[in-house]
Amino acid sequence: MSIQGTADYKFVYIRKAHPGDIKPIAENIRDIDAFECDRCASLPPDACMEKGLKEDMETYSIVEKETKEPLAMFGVGSCAPHEVCYLWMLAVKGFVKKCGAEFIKTSKEYVRRFVDHYGPCMNLIARKNTSSKRWLKFCGAVFLPVNEEFEMFVIV
What we know:
This protein has a single domain (about 5-155), classed as 3-Layer(aba) Sandwich (Aminopeptidase), CATH 3.40.630. The protein has helices at about 20-25, 30-40, 45-55, 95-120, 130-140; strands spanning about 5-10, 10-15, 60-65, 70-80, 85-90, 120-125, 140-145, 150-155. By secondary structure, it is α+β, with helices and mostly antiparallel strands. Strand 5 (about 85-90), helix 4 (about 95-120) and strand 6 form a beta-alpha-beta unit. Helices cover about 40% and strands about 30% of the residues. About 35% of the residues are buried. The longest helix has 24 residues, at about 95-120. It has an eight-stranded mixed beta sheet.
C-alpha cells in the first residue's frame, strides 16, 4: 500500500518523505515531539526521522505550499513480523495553524488506510501532548496507561 501521488490541500500537500526534509523539521520541532523522541526512542528528532525513512514501510512529509518547507513527517513501521505496527508523526511549531483545519479533518483517512492495510497500530504518547491526543482520539485511538509520563494509543 502507498498513498498514491500527492495529496493536495489548500495550504499543504503530502508527498513521499526525502532525507532533505529532516533538517528543517528538526530545527523547528515541537518541544513535545522532541521530548517524546528523547524519552521513547532515546534519540534526537533528526535521528528518529532518519530511522523512519530507512526502516519504516511508509514515510511521508507534509509540505507548506507557499514556502515549500516541510512541516511534518509521519509514517508507519513494523514492531516485528505479524505484530502490531506503530504510527508516528513529528511536526514543527505552529504546524496546526499552518496546515489548516481541512488537513486535520481529512488526515483520519491516512490513519484508516494504514490500519486497514497493516492492521492495528500503536505508539506511546506523552500524557501532556493534549493536542495530539485529541487528534488521535478523532482518528479512533483508545489510550492505555503506561506510567506517569506516557500512555499507549491503539487504533484498530
